[in-house]
Design a protein that fits this description.
The complex is a heterodimer of chains A (337) and B (417). Chain A is of the alpha/beta class. Chain A has helices at 49-64, 77-82, 102-118, 133-138, 141-150, 201-207, 221-232, 247-250, 257-267, 292-297, 312-329, and strands at 69-73, 94-96, 126-132, 155-160, 212-217, 238-243, 273-276, 279-283. Chain A contains eleven helices and eight strands. The chains are: A alpha/beta (337), B alpha/beta (417).
């Protein structure tokens, strides 16, 4: 964590007390000047991880862009809960076109900014594209890859809650194995989502060797802000993948959103790292390693694993996947911490 | 300036003269030469302040165009056939958002069976998508319509498709008059958007609209097309004033004043039809032609006026509404409502099948004699069709139909003639 030299653990969590920091080190959210890009009054569920992640990410991007930011938004929860027209929570220029084309819409916006600047008709304006995991890893994947490959000047933010929550909790390619969704019900010999090969889009983004890729969770909001700020300091295609727990889809208590995001990181289920030009340049280390069971048990989408006969083998497979992440990304490598 | 040039290149030059700011495209035959030409002109710096973006699909092409147009840039793309279908979701989105994108459709058949040659099935499949559709008869008109299209699109904030017959026009070398930059600048003012993504004045575009306002929003799209119906003839007049040419407008008529039979068609086939009509007129046959330039909005009043003295109308269309017959015919029938005249649909030229004067003359002669059927498939090889139908009657696993029929035809590679 190059951007956070001092760790504040006094609250027993990773929460950093802003009042203990000097003014310039305080979070964007702590700043009275923050833009509230995604303003209050929207219709997200209680405990929505996506709303929290979007508020921090877009305010940080606005801060970095000095208020000159345009957002393109995929169809999905974020779009629906923020714009029940004539109300809109967006305080920034914002466009929703379709489910699967957000990266391309952002490419178009970025192209215009380039042209208008050449003509002396516009100041520098930055572009953010955002969508859920369905709009990013599934239906919007072609446009996303095209935007990466061309290295268009767009920061794409994926809010990953592991499923199509807006349509009623169906499986996406980001749904984890064994998880219950409306289309992967906990019935039959292999209940819940199948163990596939996985589709970890941050790694695919890295394969495009774009200037910046990062993952983050809503448990480490300072880390998220710092990554957005860093991404905004870079030109070209950038990608940030934020794990955002969904109380509705995960069957978790709304007060457990932050706890779940933290457990996803602390178990190794969700590796938190950043990469530049295809190479990992930093990881957020696991501070207190936890077994995946701690993460799984408080989510109803995994309830079928903990019945009268616990699915020991399935849990072991999930643990193995987390352990592999820990090895692969060096998440326990204390020396590098 | 008069030039002997390819249709695609003429269009590329016209688009370049319109000072586009963003051009995005994905290659598909027969649209390729247009975007190749523009790509080269942009890269060479001949089109100032323009970004040319090579995208990964037609869906992305239209999506980049949406982002670009919503950010206030004059935006152009081109496609055809499968490419148009692949971008359909974004095509509807562009018109729904009221974004004045101009797109060339180099009209081509839709598969299966895959076919690269010309008919109108692609853009006609998008008749209800909210875009204006203008059909060019010649390469000169294709060039001219693009200049008019930008002005029309931007005035009423709706996207416009300029449809030109694939290969027949796009790949034909003909003499065209390429206007000067000064002429185009005099006709086409800089784009002043109604809505724009601008940090100085933030707006939300593309919000969800429920039953409380959806009908009204959709009606507005219709109202705009009705405005276009008024504007299109006036734009053609303004165009004539500056460029000295008759191009565009809602319809073109030819020899209809005393015509018993009026043939209705769109696009380049109008040339062949007029040649045939000339031959028949020399024999005293009372036959005339109505060319439809503006397919959407559909000029019901102009069509009705052109047909009111006729006894028969023959709609010759390069498209097939499977299950009923004609696509354009349906609209023409609406225009004929209340008129006492016989209507005929002729499906012709599908997938590049040549429409010859010989066939047309036989067809029109039948029409004049009152012998034409309600629905005719011009030059259909009944032997091949009946053989396949018989095969399917007698053999359950009759195999892929198109391949069997090709074998029956006995061709090794596709021939247009």
């Amino acid at each position: 964590m190059s951007f956070q030299p001092v760790h504040f653990y006094q609250t027993g969590t990773f929460t950093v007390g802003n009042r203990l920091l000097s003014a310039e080190d305080r979070s964007v959210q702590a700043n009275m000047e923050r833009t509230n890009s995604l303003n209050s009054g929207h219709r997200a569920c209680q405990g929505c991880g996506e709303a929290l992640g979007a508020r921090y990410a877009i305010d940080a991007a606005m801060n970095a862009a000095r208020g000159r930011l345009i957002a393109a938004n995929a169809t999905g929860c974020l779009e629906v809960f923020s714009t029940p027209y004539p109300e809109t929570s967006w305080q920034i220029p914002w466009i929703h076109s379709l489910f699967g084309n957000t990266a391309a819409v952002a490419t178009g916006i970025a192209a215009v900014i380039k042209v208008k600047r050449q003509k002396g008709q516009s100041e520098d304006v930055r572009v953010v594209a955002q969508g859920g995991d369905g709009g990013t890893t599934d239906i919007g994947f072609g446009c996303l890859s095209g935007m990466f490959e061309r290295n268009d000047d767009v920061l794409y933010i994926c809010y990953d809650n592991g499923g199509y929550m807006n349509t009623g909790v169906q499986r996406s390619s980001a749904t984890p194995p064994a998880a219950r969704t409306a289309t992967t019900m906990p019935v039959g010999p292999e209940p819940g989502n199948a163990f596939g090969q996985g589709k970890f889009v941050p790694a695919i983004a890295m394969a495009h060797e774009i200037p910046y890729v990062a993952t983050a969770t809503v448990a480490d909001l300072r880390d998220l802000e710092a990554k957005v700020t860093k991404a905004m300091s870079i030109r070209g295609a950038r990608y940030i993948h934020i794990l955002v727990p969904c109380p509705l889809g995960w069957g978790s208590a709304s007060h457990d959103t932050i706890k779940l995001a933290r457990l996803a990181k602390e178990t190794g289920i969700f590796p938190v790292f950043e990469a530049e030009f295809g190479e990992v340049t930093g990881t957020l280390k696991i501070r207190r390693p936890q077994p995946v069971e701690e993460y799984l048990r408080i989510q109803k989408r995994y309830a079928h694993l903990f019945g009268k006969q616990p699915a020991v083998e399935t849990i072991a497979r999930l643990q193995a996947a987390a352990d592999k992440n820990i090895r692969k990304y060096g998440l326990l490598d204390q020396e590098a911490n | 300036m008069l030039k002997q040039t390819e249709g695609s290149h003429a269009v590329a030059e016209a688009v370049a003269l319109c000072r586009p700011e963003v051009i995005c495209a994905y290659p598909i035959s027969p649209q390729t030469h247009i975007v190749e030409g523009l790509g080269e002109m942009v890269k060479a710096g001949e089109v100032e302040h323009c970004e040319f973006i090579n995208v990964e699909s037609e869906f992305a092409a239209m999506s980049v165009a949406i982002g670009s147009s919503a950010t206030g840039a004059r935006t152009y793309t081109a496609t055809a056939s499968q490419g148009l279908l692949f971008m359909v979701e974004a095509v509807y989105n562009a018109s729904g958002l009221g974004l004045p994108i101009v797109m060339t459709v180099a009209n081509r058949a839709i598969g299966a069976p895959i076919n690269i040659w010309n008919d109108h099935t692609d853009s006609l499949s998008q008749r209800d998508c909210g875009w204006i559709q203008l059909f060019a008869e010649t390469n000169q008109e294709a060039l001219d319509l693009h200049i008019q299209a930008f002005k029309l699109a931007e005035e009423i904030s709706l996207p416009v498709m300029v449809c030109m017959d694939g290969f027949i026009l796009t790949h034909a070398y003909e003499r065209v008059d390429v206007p000067t930059q000064a002429q185009v600048d005099a006709f086409l003012p800089p784009y002043e958007p109604r809505q724009v993504l601008d940090p100085r004045e933030p707006v939300s575009i593309g919000a969800m609209v429920g039953p409380e306002a959806f009908s009204e929003v959709r009606y507005l799209a219709h109202a705009k097309q009705m405005q276009a119906l008024q504007r299109i003839p006036k734009l053609a007049e303004e165009f004539h004033t500056i460029f000295g040419r008759d191009s565009g407008g809602l319809t073109h008529t030819y020899c209809i004043d005393d015509a018993d039979v009026v043939v209705v068609a769109m696009g380049s086939v109008l040339g062949t039809i007029k040649d045939t009509v000339d031959e028949m007129r020399a024999n005293g046959d009372k036959i005339g032609v109505l060319g439809i330039t503006s397919y959407r909005p559909f000029p019901i009043d102009a069509v009705r006026a052109a047909l009111q003295n006729a006894k028969r109308v023959v709609v010759l269309e390069k498209s097939l509404a499977v299950g009923i017959g004609g696509i354009v015919s349906t609209d023409v029938r609406m225009a004929m409502s209340g008129l006492q005249l016989h209507g005929h649909t002729v499906v012709a030229g599908l997938g590049g099948r040549a429409i010859t004067r010989k066939s047309l003359r036989a067809l029109f002669t039948k029409a004049l004699r009152g012998e034409l059927e309600h629905l005719t498939f011009l030059d259909l090889d009944w032997n091949v069709v009946n053989k396949q139908l018989e095969r399917e009657r007698t053999t359950r696993r009759s195999g892929p139909a198109a391949e069997s029929m090709l074998r029956d035809v006995g061709v090794i590679a596709a021939r247009i003639g």
